[in-house]
């Protein structure tokens, strides 16, 4: 599906580096001593069996958890302990394993919500939807409409998302993440629970986001076909440890990965 | 008449120039993009098209050359057609959803050298079959999304072509040349080739001249008094003659505004926003809108449901009469209809996006009479028309006040109609085609030397001078005494009764018409309950004498109605029987789309057909059936046959030539 030597990724510009990160909840170790990096412009997949620590890893990256050991460097700056919205302002957006949208709001409003960090008009103007706030809203609406067009969801622009089928909700969630114009987009199982056609659509959108806007993407996904097709590099976790890291082909041939996925005779 | 011929504007580019002159600031096209209706005035369209035409010439499109247009309804694709016509090239619109092979056939057959397409999807399709159409040199596209990394040696964005043309137009010599090209176009020249999808065999290219397309557009505009204040929404395939006449020819001729929806899924909402005044839709669109409404009403509160039911019932009694301005509607009924209009009908029309509709058309296939009447009863002036690509659409239309669900209306203005001996409808009008492209044999078969065109449909004029289409002419058989036997027409009449689910008629080459009937289990079991008929199985119910009596009553009514229609009297049903099992697609008796497979049934139930025609009153039959889980079993039954009394035909065998 994609050329192995992505010209952007080949530049080896590291956008985010994870160094020796461990994360514990009391006695439970969710992650131990994990290191890998995400390069600018690539699609990076994080895979692993259930409970391997993939979502924990994503939560560390977007600042929801703070690693108990090790450090995360984003754009060359070591990350202090921070709230997720600061990570968001820094250019990291994400979608969730279970869709987390405002159910009673329309598709348009949900995606507009993704722009809220970029709105600057003060509370007073926003309250009256007048003057600078109106002008700003028009500019943001334009960006949002581009996203709606990009994701081909014009027909549900004004539909409350609670009424939409699951596959479309996932698409709206991706739209909201895109509205932040992120540098790094984290996708937590973007294709879970979708049928084949929806998966193909979603793969196409992820690929096009990466190609057209040059957005760096880190995704967790269980569908191996999708992962192998879509990603430039794959990191494999098992029981909180990294067991493999490399191109899809390398990872596919790795004995430890095969054992982790297919089981091993004892 | 809004005639163009008189004022020398005999091509669409010339008409466009006229529009830019007399109504430069009126909106010509709208397209919803990024959630906003973008609009272009006639002056802007004229300027763009002139530049586009020059750009196309610069890309090597010549006078007499051909350019394919592929995609949904987009302003730039419509403009491609005018721009091509400007320089004397012939546009070939192609169905956007046709697969690559079909497209390759049409493009190769038409020898197109250029193609203007909507987006990456269509570009990919063309590139995948480019080896089958060596003439195709350049591909132009409207939306650039996803095409950035393609090889651009043959690919051009339409906007860049227009830009190129604009730069050239800055020079006086180029401007002069462009004006000359515009003047050089003649009404007698080929305007367009429309490929008909063709249910059998390869698509045929119907060649139409400017004169015929403009004549057809004049018929439509005059008939419904369209002018520049009208709005239509263009959403049907651009390769279909209907869209070409409604959204292209009539729009440019009368200066009305064409609205292109955002994408195929947003049409209902876009129509509501625009408030179209002229609507065209195939029956299924009206059907699905009505079904959706009925489903949603079920979810409404009890009060609203009751209000809806009360007023819709009232509308079905008097609504049509009020719309037709017929006398005989009481003051109170009128008052009630207007109350209903405020509370129910107007909001409904608004929901359908039909608040401002002057006239709506449905065509293509038969519309259910109750659906047709529903829309008319709530005040939508819905009409039927009968048309064909070869006629530039119009053959018959329904004038105001003469609108009925079961006919397609009177001959359209300037159209002559003749009924052939085999019942086939022949027509002649200024809108008829020149011929099929590169197929003289087919042309000679379809078009007679005196200009009459065979429609392929069988029909007749009823006592009020309205045309009724009964079936495809090749499906209409002849009985031994020479009278017509239109099986589908009779079967549809039977199926109109809720108790009859399916009917299969026989009669081609026979002395009389015989018929198999399938009862509708839901309707008949309901009837059985009310009438105290007890039964244990479908088979027993189907063979019950009282059920036979009831069905006999229906068949009798059908016979009476056949006898009252010209040339149909001979096709009355003389003997019928009720089948002991339901016809089923699993047994191969129906197609998957629920159409009866006549010859298969004739073979399978041969003993029953024998019984119909040899005069016995009972016959034994055993048939193999396939159950839903795949097991097979045998059903045997003794089926009774009933004789019918026939009515004398009210019409003489030969009918005076129908009105013109």
UniProtKB/TrEMBL annotation, chain A:
Keywords (A to Z) from UniProt: ATP-binding, Nucleotide-binding, Transport
Domain (ABC transporter): residue spans on this chain: 16-264
Molecular-function GO terms, alphabetical: ATP binding; ATP hydrolysis activity
Record keyword Membrane present: no
GO CC terms: plasma membrane
InterPro entries to which the protein is assigned, alphabetical: AAA+_ATPase (IPR003593), ABC_AA/LPS_Transport (IPR051120), ABC_transporter-like_ATP-bd (IPR003439), BCA_ABC_TP_C (IPR032823), P-loop_NTPase (IPR027417)
CDD domains with a match to the protein in the record: ABC_Mj1267_LivG_branched
Protein name: ABC transporter ATP-binding protein
Phylogenetic classification of the source organism: Bacteria, Pseudomonadati, Pseudomonadota, Alphaproteobacteria, Hyphomicrobiales
UniProtKB/TrEMBL annotation, chain B:
Molecular function GO labels: long-chain fatty acid-CoA ligase activity
UniProt entry tagged with the keyword Transferase: no
Matches recorded under Gene3D superfamilies: N-terminal domain of ligase-like (3.40.50.12780)
Superkingdom assignment: Bacteria
Signal peptide location: none
Protein's UniProt keywords contain Lipid metabolism: yes
Short name of one Pfam family: AMP-binding_C_3
Keywords: Fatty acid metabolism, Ligase, Lipid metabolism
Every AMP-dependent synthetase/ligase domain range: 17-437
Listed GO CC annotations: membrane
Protein name as catalogued: Long-chain-fatty-acid--CoA ligase
């Amino acid at each position: 599906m994609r050329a192995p030597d992505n010209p952007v990724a080949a530049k080896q510009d590291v956008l985010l580096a994870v160094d020796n990160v461990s994360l514990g909840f009391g006695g439970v170790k969710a992650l131990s001593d994990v290191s890998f990096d995400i390069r600018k412009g690539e699609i990076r997949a994080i895979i692993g069996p259930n409970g391997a620590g993939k979502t924990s890893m994503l939560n560390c990256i977007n600042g929801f958890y703070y690693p108990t050991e090790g450090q995360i460097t984003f754009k060359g700056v070591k990350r202090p302990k921070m709230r997720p919205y600061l990570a968001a302002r820094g250019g990291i957006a994400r979608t969730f394993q279970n869709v987390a949208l405002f159910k009673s709001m329309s598709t348009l409003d949900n995606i507009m919500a993704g722009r809220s960090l970029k709105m600057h008009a003060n509370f007073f103007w926003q309250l009256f939807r007048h003057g600078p706030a109106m002008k700003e809203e028009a500019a943001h609406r334009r960006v949002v409409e581009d996203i709606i067009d990009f994701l081909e969801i014009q027909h549900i622009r004004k539909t409350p998302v609670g009424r939409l089928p699951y596959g479309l909700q996932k698409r709206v969630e991706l739209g909201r993440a895109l509205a932040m114009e992120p540098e790094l987009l984290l996708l937590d199982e973007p294709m879970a629970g979708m049928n084949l056609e929806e998966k193909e659509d979603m793969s196409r959108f992820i690929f096009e986001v990466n190609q057209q806007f040059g957005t760096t993407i880190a995704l967790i996904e269980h569908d191996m076909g999708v992962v192998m097709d879509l990603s430039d590099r794959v990191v494999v976790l098992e029981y909180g440890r990294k067991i493999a890291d490399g191109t899809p082909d390398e990872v596919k041939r790795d004995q430890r990965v095969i054992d982790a996925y297919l089981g091993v005779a004892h | 008449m809004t005639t163009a011929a008189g004022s020398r504007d005999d091509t669409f580019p010339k008409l466009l120039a006229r529009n830019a002159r007399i109504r430069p600031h009126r909106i010509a096209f709208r397209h919803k993009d990024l959630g906003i209706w973008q609009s272009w005035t006639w002056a802007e369209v004229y300027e763009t098209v002139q530049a586009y035409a020059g750009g196309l010439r610069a890309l090597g499109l010549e006078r007499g050359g051909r350019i394919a247009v592929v995609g949904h309804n987009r302003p730039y694709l419509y403009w491609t057609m005018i721009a091509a016509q400007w320089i004397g090239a012939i546009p070939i619109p192609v169905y956007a959803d046709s697969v690559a092979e079909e497209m390759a056939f049409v493009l190769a057959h038409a020898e197109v050298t250029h193609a203007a397409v909507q987006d990456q999807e269509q570009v990919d399709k063309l590139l995948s079959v480019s080896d089958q159409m060596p003439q195709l040199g350049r591909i132009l596209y409207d939306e650039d999304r996803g095409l950035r990394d393609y090889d651009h040696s043959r690919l051009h964005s339409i906007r860049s072509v227009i830009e190129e043309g604009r730069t050239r137009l800055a020079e006086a010599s180029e401007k002069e040349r462009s004006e000359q090209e515009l003047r050089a176009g003649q009404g007698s020249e080929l305007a367009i080739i429309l490929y008909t999808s063709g249910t059998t065999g390869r698509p045929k290219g119907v060649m139409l001249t400017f004169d015929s397309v403009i004549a057809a557009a004049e018929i439509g505009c005059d008939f419904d008094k369209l002018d520049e204040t009208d709005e239509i929404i263009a959403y049907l395939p651009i390769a279909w003659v209907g869209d070409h006449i409604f959204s292209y020819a009539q729009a440019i001729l009368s200066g009305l505004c064409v609205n292109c929806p955002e994408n195929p899924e947003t049409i209902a909402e876009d129509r509501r926003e625009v408030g179209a005044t002229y609507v065209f839709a195939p029956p299924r669109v009206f059907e699905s809108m009505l079904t959706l409404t009925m489903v949603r009403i079920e979810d409404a509160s009890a009060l609203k449901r009751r209000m809806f039911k009360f007023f819709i019932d009232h509308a079905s009694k008097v609504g049509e009469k009020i719309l037709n301005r017929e006398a005989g509607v009481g003051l109170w009924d009128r008052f009630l209809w207007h109350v209903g209009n405020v509370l129910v009908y107007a909001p409904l029309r608004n929901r359908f996006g039909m608040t401002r509709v002057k006239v709506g058309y449905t065509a293509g296939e038969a519309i259910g009479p109750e659906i047709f009447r529903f829309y008319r009863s709530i005040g939508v002036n819905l009409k039927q028309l009968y048309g064909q690509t070869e006629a530039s659409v119009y053959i018959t239309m329904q004038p105001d006040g003469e609108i009925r669900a079961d006919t397609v209306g009177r001959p359209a203005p300037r159209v002559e109609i003749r009924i052939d001996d085999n019942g086939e409808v022949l027509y002649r009008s200024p809108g008829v085609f020149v011929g099929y492209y590169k197929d003289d044999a087919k042309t000679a078969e379809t078009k007679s030397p005196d200009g009459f065109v065979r429609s392929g449909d069988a029909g007749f004029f009823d006592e009020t001078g309205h045309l009724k289409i009964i079936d495809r002419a090749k499906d209409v058989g002849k009985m031994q005494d020479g009278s017509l036997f239109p099986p589908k027409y009779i079967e549809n009449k039977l199926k109109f009764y809720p108790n009859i689910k399916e009917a299969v008629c026989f009669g081609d080459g026979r002395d009389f018409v015989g018929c198999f009937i399938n009862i509708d289990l839901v309707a008949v079991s309901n009837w059985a309950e009310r009438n105290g008929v007890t039964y244990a199985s479908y088979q027993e119910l189907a063979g019950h004498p009282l059920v036979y009596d009831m069905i006999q009553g229906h068949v009798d009514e059908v016979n009476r109605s056949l006898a009252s229609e010209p040339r149909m009297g001979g096709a009355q049903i003389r003997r019928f029987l009720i089948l002991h099992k339901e016809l089923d697609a699993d047994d191969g008796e129906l197609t998957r789309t629920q159409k009866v497979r006549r010859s298969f049934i004739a073979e399978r139930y041969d003993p029953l057909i024998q019984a119909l025609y040899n005069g016995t009153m009972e016959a034994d039959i055993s048939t193999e059936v396939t159950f839903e889980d795949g097991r097979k079993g045998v059903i045997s039954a003794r089926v009774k046959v009933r004789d019918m009394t026939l009515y004398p035909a009210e019409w003489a065998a030969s009918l005076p030539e129908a009105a013109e």
